[in-house]
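Quick one, tokens below. Sequence please?
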């Protein structure tokens, strides 16, 4: 996971917002975030139970140091230790990969327009395809499985290896370079040759919904009558996305309800999720988390809109930082949540610089909702569980709350 400038100490990062793995088009694991916030974290009393990483960071660093001293790859040596550790979300990245993930946090990258996650059986599943991107033009769809990249099998490979293969190396990673994917669609295996492209993701999109869809500010209805409702679709929590959510809420006409769509949101920067929570809360607790047993807390900024009707849409692709936001709004009675159970990624990773320049990201704890609910492995059950036509049901709920539609 990646974030703003890091400050690394001998035992790991001293400030969070670590590497973020999954964005709207970067191939990685389902570990969207869980990265620590860079700021806004306030220490509380120590936790009564220590939740440490399943692998010691010093052990990983020592393995990398030995390899570098022997003229070998410190990155590969660290990967071997992490892969044996059982740390589901632990990963190792070389310097180039780290830089690429930081660029992805700004919404810009060179790639093929795929978001993917590791399925329960270790395979790489496509969860989102960027409209108009190389993968979309090649006919790749959500639910497809990536079996090979340039002829190499990616099943059960370390995430960093799959990312490196998809993005290429050196000149092979430039826009216009080719990458050959072996894709399984249902029971059918097919090969697709894609050309990498310079892409930009829109993390937040806003549109009007319901009977009174309004295309522009000038044509918004005034006076009596049904107000429009606003859908705010947050694809991932990249830099600035929290501010975009707050701006969208502030610009919505009085009385307009908000449908916050977090379906398929694979996470991102925790600080951005907290900023998004601040759009709907007047300060107060958003989540708690622990780092090697020390409990800390995240708080919303004051001044959010606590009156406007709010419905949150979630599904099995709602992960990590998006679950943190969902849990906060649900626990504090600020929103009605609609959809299906979320993914259940509530672990916290922290990055540390290794000998040779690579970065290891290891699990150090877990976060909890304001009411103390753990998310990891459980997910969040929405207030209204629906399968098909979830958006339609959510609009009905929002209408019932007096939010237009």
């Amino acid at each position: 996971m990646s974030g703003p400038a890091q400050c690394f100490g001998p035992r790991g990062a001293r400030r969070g917002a670590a590497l973020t793995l999954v964005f709207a088009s970067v191939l990685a694991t389902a570990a969207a975030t869980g990265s620590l916030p860079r700021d806004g974290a306030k220490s509380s009393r120590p936790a009564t139970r220590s939740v440490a990483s399943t692998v010691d960071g010093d052990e990983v660093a020592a393995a990398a140091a030995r390899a570098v001293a022997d003229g070998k790859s410190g990155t590969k040596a660290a990967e071997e230790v992490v892969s044996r550790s059982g740390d589901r979300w632990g990963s190792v990245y070389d310097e180039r990969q780290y830089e690429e993930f930081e660029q992805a946090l700004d919404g810009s990258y060179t790639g093929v327009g795929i978001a993917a996650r590791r399925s329960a059986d270790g395979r790489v599943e496509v969860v989102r395809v960027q409209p108009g991107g190389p993968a979309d033009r090649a006919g790749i769809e959500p639910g497809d499985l990536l079996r090979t990249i340039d002829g190499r099998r990616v099943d059960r490979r370390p995430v960093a290896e799959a990312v490196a293969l998809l993005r290429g190396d050196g000149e092979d990673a430039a826009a216009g370079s080719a990458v050959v994917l072996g894709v399984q669609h249902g029971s059918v295996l097919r090969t697709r040759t894609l050309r990498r492209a310079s892409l930009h993701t829109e993390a937040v999109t806003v549109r009007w919904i319901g009977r009174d869809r309004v295309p522009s500010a000038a044509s918004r209805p005034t006076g009596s009558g049904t107000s429009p409702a606003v859908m705010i679709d947050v694809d991932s929590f990249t830099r600035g996305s929290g501010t975009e959510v707050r701006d969208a809420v502030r610009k919505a006409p009085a009385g307009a309800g908000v449908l916050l769509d977090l379906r398929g949101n694979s996470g991102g920067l925790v600080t951005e999720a907290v900023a998004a929570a601040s759009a709907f809360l007047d300060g107060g607790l958003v989540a708690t988390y622990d780092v090697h047993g020390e409990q800390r807390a995240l708080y919303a900024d004051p001044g959010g809109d606590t009156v406007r009707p709010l419905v949150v849409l979630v599904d099995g692709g709602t992960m990590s930082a998006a679950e943190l936001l969902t849990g906060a709004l649900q626990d504090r009675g600020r929103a009605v949540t609609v959809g299906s159970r979320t993914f259940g990624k509530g672990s916290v990773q922290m990055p540390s610089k290794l000998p040779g320049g690579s970065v290891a990201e290891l699990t150090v704890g877990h976060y909890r909702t304001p009411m103390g609910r753990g998310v990891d492995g459980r997910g969040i059950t929405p207030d209204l569980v629906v399968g098909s036509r979830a958006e339609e049901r959510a609009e009905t709920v929002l209408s019932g709350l007096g939010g237009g539609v």
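The longest helix spans residues 57-69. Residues 202-345+369-400 form a domain with the 2-enoyl-CoA Hydratase; Chain A, domain 1 fold (CATH 3.90.226.10).
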